[in-house]
Amino acid sequence: MTRSIWKGPHVDSSLLSKLNKIRKTDSKKKINTWSRRSVILPQFIGLSFNIYNGNKWVSVTVTEDMIGHKLGEFSLTRKAVKHKKK
Predict the structure, then answer these.
(1) What is the 3-state secondary structure (H, E, C) of 37-76?
(2) What is the structure's pLDDT at 28?
(3) Residue 35 lies in a domain
(4) pLDDT tens digit string along 14-65?
(5) Cα–Cα distance list, 11 to 1, 49, 59, 68, 86 (Å)
(6) What's the structural domain count of the chain?
(7) Which H or E run contains 44?
(8) CA atoms within 13 A of residue 83's CA, in its CB half-sphere
(9) Does 10 fall in a domain?
(10) What is the rounded CA–CA span in Å between residue 83 and residue 86?
(11) What's the domain of life for this entry (predicted)?
(12) Of the four listed, 14, 18, 82, 83, which is most buried by Cβ atoms within 10 Å?
């Protein structure tokens, strides 16, 4: 089930505070986040995120095509199955 339109997109407050710090200092530093459920907003375009997938940090740079998707969609948590040849 999707989130109600009147509530707006969900973004963790800790992620927004990190975003504001980066914007004030104009640094190119990557933002570390565990919030895979946060929605990508237009303010995130051009920023780099390190998203934790439960095992390692996955580096993601946000582009215009990613707006409206969640951060977790770009850091996969499961490995692809590779079958052995006999």
Answers:
(1) CCECCHHHCCCEEEEECCCCEEEEECCHHHCCCEHHHHCC
(2) 83
(3) yes
(4) 999 999 998 898 888 899 999 999 999 999 999 999 999 999 999 999 999 9
(5) 17, 14, 19, 11, 48
(6) 1
(7) none
(8) 2
(9) no
(10) 9
(11) Eukaryota
(12) 18
Record the pTM: 0.83
Contact 66, 41 (CB under 8 A): no
Residue 65 sits in a domain whose CATH number is: 3.30.860.10
Give the model's pLDDT for residue 11.
Answer: 92
Domain that holds residue 44: 30-77
Question: Does residue 53 lie within any of the structural domains?
Answer: yes
How do beta strands 31-33 and 48-52 pair? parallel
Coil, strand or helix at 18: helix
